[in-house]
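Example record for the data management plan.
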Amino acid sequence: MPNSGNRNRRARTSQGRDIAEMKPFRQGDLDSLCGLYAVLNATRLLCPELGYEGSRSLFRQLAETLTAKRVTAFETVAWGIEMPTVLALIQSARTYVREVLDTSLRLEPFRSVRKTLRIGYLWKALMSRLKEGWVAIIGISGHHNHWTVAHRATAKSMRLFDSDLMTTLKRSRCSLRCTRAPHQIDPGEIFLLRREAG
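Corresponding structural encoding:
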């Protein structure tokens, strides 16, 4: 009969740390590929017929685009993907869906007609575009630097389709410049994508 005292033994690492207190790292916890995943997820929202295999194929093409842009794997994984590279990834995804699905994705950078932009105006403008069938790839900073995808919005929040499992971005927690807010949105780091009719 086993010793009943063994029931209270907990698994420990070689240094004696309780394994139950540790959490395994997930894909994305330490790498900075959110820009690639944002482009992939935006494309999937607009072209759901891609399915799993089409998404894998698109992922490979996007990864090849990174190396074509002379961005090393180390730079991408360790430091993240900057705006010009995100734009190159979007162009690569547009080429892919044109060649594979015979459809077009329209790209527009976010533009403001106002010289002085406030978060309220930015939010309303994005709400309007999302209602028209656009999705927005948005660079956020602050709490963490991250590329995400917004597909719906209300006056209080945006619904996300996000590689880090964020589901909403709350208006009350966002600003353009105020570092006290957990999330800062740079209007220059917003790309709008929409599937063209026909």
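Summary line stored alongside the record: The helical segments are 34-46, 51-68, 73-79, 83-101, 119-131.
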